[in-house]
Fold:
Amino acid sequence: MSRAAEETRLPASVLSQYEAVIGLEVHAQLKTQTKIFCACSTRFGDPPNQNTCPVCLGLPGTLPVLNRRALELALRAALALHCTVHERARFARKNYFYPDLPKGYQISMYELPLATGGWLEIEHDGTTKRIGITRLHLEEDAGKSLHEGFPDSDRYTYLDFNRCGVPLIEIVSEPDLRSPAEAYAYLTALKQVLEYTEVSDCNMEEGSLRCDANVSVRRRGASRFGTKTEVKNLNSFRYLQRALEYEIERQIAVLESGGQIEQETRLWNLAAARTEPMRSKEFAHDYRYFPEPDLLPVRVPAALQAEILAAMPELPAARRQRFQRDYGLSAYDASVLTDTRARADYFEAVVRAGAAPKAASSWIQTELLRRLNDAGDDIQNSPVAPEALAELIALVEAGTITAASGKKVFAQMFETGKRAAAIVAAEGLSQINDVAELERLCREVIAQHPENAAKYRAGNEGVFKFFVGQVMRATRGQANPQLVNEILQRLLRQE
Amino acid sequence: MSAPTAWTVESVRRALTAKQISARELTDEFFRRIGERNPELNAYLALCPERAYAQADRIDRQVARGASLPLLAGVPVAIKDVISTAGIVTTCGSRILQNYIPPYDATAVTRLEQAGAILLGKTNCDEFAMGSSNENSAYGPVRNPIAPDRVPGGSSGGSAAAVAAGLAVIALGTDTGGSIRQPGALCGIPALMPTYGRVSRYGLIAFASSLDRIGPFGRTVADVAAALTVLAGEDANDSTCARTPVPDYTAELHKPVQGMRLGIPKEYFGAGMDPAVRQRVEQAIQQLAQLGCTIEHISLPHTDYAIATYYLVATAEASSNLARYDGVRFGFRAPAASLAEMYRRTRGQGFGQEVKRRIMLGTYALSAGYYEAYYLRAQKVRSLIARDFAEAFRQVDLIVTPTSPVPAFRLGERTSDPLQMYLADIYTVTGSLAGLPGISVPCGTTPEGLPVGLQILGPHFEEARVLRLAHAFERASGFSS
Structure:
């Protein structure tokens, strides 16, 4: 932590006298093929300015035409967040000059947003809390200024307009969050809803999920909010928490030293690990909002709302509850398995293919997720299909192979993509259930270790595990452990 | 006017079909006339002979094949320089776009060419269509072909002058507060502002988006009707463009006007009107009565607020629409050491006085603390003005007024007083604010020989009715050029 940050370190006894009040403004890129007001592609990572046309470049005389898909996705998000969708919304112009804003205004929504008054439940410290959603509206993204990375970057700024006109929703929360951890939980839950509903990829690295925070502090028990600051550039979950922690401590330190909080916009400086005021020129805008005359008001007929509601995928909270109820999973397991929609879908596909829910849960969590994590891959790209995992689970449950063999088989399935039965056959891994054969092996092991057999008979029961281990080793783990137990006990007692 | 200037849509079609002239010869003829008269009039800012001859040859091949010709086949047209034309410099009469070449055609241009029209060039106008005399062009004023010491009106002065001087058969203008109708009146030709949403604005470089409209000038009402038939209709690139079906406006012209109820609003005959204008307009109203129309005296009570309302709404939108001229991506850029300085110099040097005045007015009207008092209030009054018309149209079929309080004035006569200039729009801004269709048709001249225009306003999407009355008046009065 930098010196500046350390300077704001306050004793816990002081910090605990204060309470933070946080609201988040989240921008999520909608998962559309084309931009919000023209037919250009929204693809990420293309060569600069490839996905542009006269409309998104703001050339004179061009007009925006609303992408219907963008509206539908925004409505889906609004309904998933329990908002009231307004029958009539209206785009407005937010006017400011910036080189990457080609029209000199951003088309957004202002006094008539698409939706207001929703909520999202977060789970934090084992309790559930409902966070209010103030509003949700549609807007276009701006282009990107590239200040570095070119040989003449000392003299020129380059502009890439590929992102210009990409559809966004802005989701503004109520100031209901009381700690950085709650803010983190809120962003996590919001991301989950947007992913589940396929509204957004929520890819923070690609900028498809961005977050600003309004932060203030007040003495515990105070009823009025303190003066807030807006903290920008919180574009990862980790920065969000660290920046909020920093900003809260900074504000408390200011108040503790008898100062006053200045209402301002601050930027999270990742390298310095602190928030810094933006130069006033950069934010002291009078945006001169007024209704966008180039677009008709957006009408959302009740029928369209009903259609979108009817097609709404199951939301994460509902799925979590259903997993506990229908599959008898613990709250923890249900939470892990519903973390992403793809993961939950995978789990249910394994169950549908015949696996017992608890076994499926355990295999996915202990084997599949670990290996996917090591491989840095997503469950969507799992080399082991849900049906294949169900087959493996069936082999283990039927006793055809041991659980230990099952893990080895799984490893090979993951590596090669082969089915379990083929691997078991090729490797001769089938479990040994032949009592006569096992008895022969057990006799051999006992005969080879007479001194241990004597110890056992003298009452040292601990040595029993040794014999089991020897038999398992001799069978490369394929012996049915249950049978080995019974046989060893019988033989050791007999002699 | 001498015989050679009298081409119309119909006479071009007849001559082409009868092979009395080829489209190429006709194009030659118009470029020759432009060469002769344009140095004096300054109506055209740019010509596009390559594109014109390519189109002329296409038409000639169609004629040779004996194919059926499209509606405007071979008709030479001029386009106001605020309308985008692919590959042809489009300046908006402004220095800031002195080198701007659009990569695409406005929908209106595409439709004209698809209908066989031959695009001759781009016409002069007040900078960004802001003005009523065409004196606000960075490329010099246009002279009125009827009286070259006088203005042609504005802002579509170049288009009006081109048609009036026989340098184009049809020209596109744009009307935000009167910019088609007023120059039509001052140059003595029919000039139509269609209903807001009747003609696509795609490619029309915005001045005030909620008011801007593209419309045609012609030598006859029939030509204007033919042009509208081609221009009107929905456009996937303009969501404010209506899906209302497009009638054949030419066919509608010949329906009777007897029994039409015409409203004469008392507010349009007050002080400030030139007596000669008053006389001509009153005579015209009598002629309309003789055609069997009923004359009803009506009131549009909020008329007095129209100029103030218009200049708030239009400048507010303009302040935003003109923000994109920042020197970053196209057009004029004044070099400077910092971004802010580059913005300031580019816009300071690139825009003319009147444009800067309006950007400042509009910026003020939208500013925090003033928005409610100015912009929002103006929008409310705008609704009241629209309601005045809606109520009037319950009693009458059309409304008839003068187009301009004065005939063409002398160059330089009004430039020193912007407010005086703004009052030139006093009879036209109301129709603009209400989104109505309106035409100006010639109704005689003043004793000095200056044309006077009669304005006919109709309900939304009733262009056919407006044109029908204009056509009947034109025939009865004999004022058609």
About this structure: Residues 237-256 of chain A form the longest helix (20 residues). Chain A touches chain B at residues 54, 57-66, 93, 95, 97, 99, 102-105, 159, 286, 288-290, 293-296 (CB under 8 Å). Residues 1-6 of chain A have pLDDT under 50 and may be disordered.
